[in-house]
Amino acid sequence: MNLFEQLGLDEPILKAISDMGFETPSEIQQKAIPTLLANGADMVALAQTGTGKTAAFGFPLLQLIDTDSKLTQGLILSPTRELCLQIADDLKGFGKYIDGLHVVAVYGGASIITQIHELKHGAQIIVATPGRLIDLMERGVVKLENVRNVVLDEADEMLNMGFSDSINTIFEAVPADRNTLLF
Ligand code: AMP
To answer: Is the CB of 148 under 6 A from ligand 1?
Structure first.
């Protein structure tokens, strides 16, 4: 049995993992994936970049998405546009064999109209910088009441950059019983 399968991951994610040539789950993946798949845990994970943290939260988040629904179910916040795009690209790659999956990145410094168009097609997972997300929430384009998992990637950096008020505003819009994952 494949080591990733032992952690509870199913086809089609296993197929993407095989394409990427990953053979062994990293330490943070071994710890985080089974816990997140079991659903219903808040988590603080300390890991440097390069340790496979995006897959550690990304694989389970993707597997938990109900693709029969277009509602937003997973939210990832990141401090910068570059990281936001990187995470969204990674998730699209991990989820390339999941039919009907839509991952959308929203961030400042780019056309909001284009992002609104993308969101209107449905986005089960949104990867966002805080300011642009709030703008889209205020325009009624983003609805977060069905979000099950919120990931704060580089949470320490977001707080250093003064995003704590924005993060509070966003957290008021997600269900109280969602899981919060700090990486
Ligand atoms: P990250 O820490 O998420 O920035 O990932 C660092 C790099 O490691 C990325 O290029 C991933 O594609 C790669 N990676 C993640 N998990 C694994 C794994 N289990 N085996 C090999 N490479 C991996």
So the answer is: no
Full-model pTM: 0.96
Q: How far apart are CA 138 and CA 136, in angstroms?
A: 5
3-state SS record for 47-92? CCCCCCHHHHHHHHHHHCCCCCCCCCCEEEECCCHHHHHHHHHHHH
Burial bucket for residue 107 (CB in 10 Å: 0-12, 13-18, 19+): buried
Residue 104 identity: V
Reported as a single tens digit per residue, the pLDDT across 111-136 is: 999 999 999 999 999 999 999 999 99
CB atoms within 10 A of CB 12: 17
Q: What tens digit of pLDDT does each residue of 33-47 get?
A: 999 999 778 889 888
Q: Is the CB of residue 20 less than 8 Å from the CB of residue 92?
A: no
- Which residue, judged by its Cα, is nearest atom 7 of ligand 1? 50
Task: Determine if ligand 1 sits within 6 Å of the CB of residue 21.
Answer: no
What CA–CA distance (Å, rounded) separates 172 from 86?
26
